[in-house]
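Quick log. Single chain, no ligands specified.
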Amino acid sequence: GLVDYLSFVTFFPSLVSGPIVLHGATVVQFQDVSRRRFDGESFAKGVMLFALGLGKKVLLADTLALAVNYGYAHIPSLDSLSALTVAVFYTLELYFDFSGYSDMAIGVGKMFRIEIPANFHSPYRAVSVKDFWKRWHMTLSGFLQRYIYFPLGGSRKGKMRTWMNTMIVFLCSGLWHGAGWTYICWGFLHGIFLIVTKRFRSRIEKLPGAINRVVTLLFVNMTCILFR
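-> predicted structure:
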């Protein structure tokens, strides 16, 4: 009804970017009468998560942003080591910024006894691009999979169609983040890298996990330059 809709659209403040939450999964919680009573334990957990997210954002992301912004404003004067440092700092800034906002949103939800799904799970420990997207912005991955990848046929219509569907999803992911060619190229590169790793999965899986983790992290870090 109208009350459910208004509850859903007004629950999330526009200043806090967090997980993608679907209407159906949230409204049922609003309708649950037992959740309308104050719960001290849930509120305390919410405050803790909110404080953790705020710390990630203000103490880590914003501090790293000072160096990143300075570096990108003085690119011609950077040597190789400085350029690499700025690139790494931005990769960390992006994570602490977005995961901080997500923790804050989840914390606010817990204060009101509303469960919001986790959005990050140690993404920079990923051993492949596929693994990375299972850990990074997980609610976006689920959203694109549910509303784009599966309706296109997923992996049920042959190898070439699967690769094409994968590329479409990642191009849409790029456009999701911004209507610019750098975002589209960022999505394209992630799609290509995922297809390549799927194609040679048997060989890649034979490599030590540490090597796959380093290669994945280097790829993510380099594509973050395009994203920035």
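The chain is about 70% helix and 0% strand.
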